[in-house]
Design brief:
The structure holds two protein chains of two kinds.
Chain A: E1 5-14, E2 17-27, E3 32-36, H1 43-50, E4 58-63, E5 66-67, H2 74-79, E6 81-84, H3 96-106, H4 112-125, H5 141-154, E7 159-163, H6 171-186, E8 190-194, H7 198-204, E9 207-212, E10 215-220, H8 222-227, H9 232-243
Parallel strand pairs in A: 3-8, 3-9, 6-7, 7-8
Antiparallel strand pairs in A: 1-2, 1-4, 4-5, 9-10
Chain B: H1 3-7, H2 10-51, H3 54-69, H4 72-82, H5 92-117, H6 121-130, H7 134-164, H8 176-187, H9 191-223
The chains are: A alpha/beta, B mainly alpha.
Chain lengths: 244, 224
């Protein structure tokens, strides 16, 4: 099966600081890939390079065979790649329903009635049936992030990128967001997830990737990865994270 | 002659009132045309200043700086008295509307720019990630939020534009001030000037109150 996301030799730097040192990665349809690693390891940058929210200096990213690059085709590729941000980034002037319906309405040109019906259905699915007409400021963090997930789903993307989706949440709201993501994973949605939630990674991932200092250090299925990591740096990281 | 008869002469006032109201109407018309044209062009100018290709961006910046530096009266005199030498003859209304709009465009451009720049990066990124193009991002995501922020300074600018219309009397525009000075000369009495001043206040004081209202209202809205 051809890869859905194909990354080759990705180099990225902020000024003099090199963030990514030649990343190669392929994500296959239906796969759930979880990227972990210490802060500053470049995992969020890697994610943001996939839909070119972050410019990079070398290498190629392909989504569904199409090169992701500046130009008139970029918006179309981005429409096929959903994104969920750490800080939700909901549109504060729109209700939950309109947040979810905006993309289909203005990008996919779905008729208003159909776009809203679908938005309603997706909000039901993430457990927000009662909150469709509330504005983001009236919702809790966990609710906002679930709206953001519905917003990404509304575009029927080929893959959804999650950039530390629970890092900005109060602890008691982390579970509700992870639950939604877990049930998504079960439906066969392709997902690339940057997170610090190791339990979630272990339960949900098809493949775990450990990054450090802009390189992929180790990757594998969750059981061997968490059970018996091969690399010393992976062992040290897991030790530090799981022991606290 | 008593003070009241000099400055608040009822019969002079009643005699001048029709002319004053005519002038007030022209002032409002000139103000409205300049405000609408200034806002629309200011929005385009702000977008050019922020997002156009480099040469255009520079041009927009130069334009904004020049128009904010030149005294409106000087610009108005140039448009009305200098342009005819190159064969461009504009009526006093068009001259005044043009000069005021050119300057108002620069100020509103700065206001819109500040409003757009106040929108968090994450909003642009969320719009980009959805695949909204530049104009859709602006129209459905950025500008609705930016507009809300800039309502107070924008209203404040409208007040300035309305006040600046008084300069049009210099180019023989029969606006409120011009009507008043003419009536004053005719009656040899300053009452029409007092009347004009009162009419300006009547027009502008509510707007000034409105700005304060927006400012406190907005503060409450952002706090919630």
């Amino acid at each position: 099966m051809p890869a859905l996301i194909e990354i080759q030799g990705l180099h990225q730097s902020f000024g003099a600081v090199q963030v990514l040192h030649g990343i190669d990665l392929a994500v296959h349809p239906g796969e759930v890939v979880v990227v972990i690693g210490p802060s500053g390891s470049g995992k969020s940058t890697l994610l943001r390079c996939i839909n070119l929210l972050e410019p990079y200096q070398g290498g190629v990213v392909r989504v569904d065979g199409r090169k992701v690059e500046r130009g008139p085709g970029l918006a179309r590729v981005r429409a096929e790649v959903g994104m969920v941000f750490q800080s939700f980034n909901l549109f504060p002037h729109l209700s939950a329903l309109d947040n979810v319906a905006l993309g289909p309405l203005r990008v996919l040109r779905t008729p208003r009635k159909a776009a809203q019906a679908r938005a309603q259905a997706l909000l039901d699915k993430v457990g927000l049936r009662e909150h469709t007409h509330k504005f983001p400021a009236q919702l809790s963090g966990g609710q906002q992030q679930r709206v953001a997930i519905a917003r990404a789903l509304a575009m029927e993307p080929k893959v959804i990128l999650f950039d530390e989706p629970t890092s900005a949440l109060d602890p008691e709201m982390v579970g509700e967001v992870l639950d939604v993501m877990q049930s998504l994973a079960k439906t066969g949605v392709t997902m690339v997830i940057v997170t610090h939630e190791m339990g979630f990674a272990r339960r949900v991932a098809d493949r775990v990737i450990f990054m450090e200092a802009g390189r992929i250090v180790e990757q594998g299925a969750p059981e061997p990865f968490f059970g018996a990591p091969r690399e010393a740096r992976t062992q040290a990281f897991l030790q530090a994270i799981l022991s606290h | 002659m008593s003070l009241t008869e000099t400055f608040f002469n009822w019969s002079v006032f009643v005699g001048a009132l029709p002319a004053l109201l005519e002038g007030l109407w022209i002032t409002i018309l000139l103000g409205a045309v300049s405000i609408v044209a200034g806002m629309l062009s200011g929005l385009v100018m702000a977008l050019a200043r922020l997002y156009a290709p480099a040469p255009l961006r520079l041009l927009a910046r130069v334009y904004v700086d020049v128009m904010r530096s030149i005294p409106l009266l000087v610009l108005l005199v140039l448009v009305y008295y200098a342009l005819p030498f190159v064969g461009i003859r504009l009526s006093s209304f068009v001259s005044a509307a043009l000069a005021i709009t050119l300057v108002s465009c620069a100020y509103t451009a700065e206001i819109f720019r500040a409003g757009i720049e106040a929108i968090p990066r994450g909003q642009f990124e969320a719009a980009d990630a959805l695949g909204l193009g530049f104009f859709s991002s602006m129209r459905y995501v950025v500008l609705p939020q930016a507009l809300r922020i800039v309502v107070p300074p924008l209203t404040s600018n409208c007040i300035n534009v309305l006040k600046d219309t008084a300069l049009a009397s210099v180019v023989a525009m029969p606006d409120l001030l011009k009507q008043a000075t003419q009536a004053q000369a005719l009656a040899a009495n300053p009452t029409p000037l007092i009347g004009a001043a009162l009419l300006y206040l009547l027009l502008l004081l509510p707007l000034v109150r409105l700005v304060s209202f927006f400012e406190t209202g907005h503060r409450k809205a952002t706090l919630s």
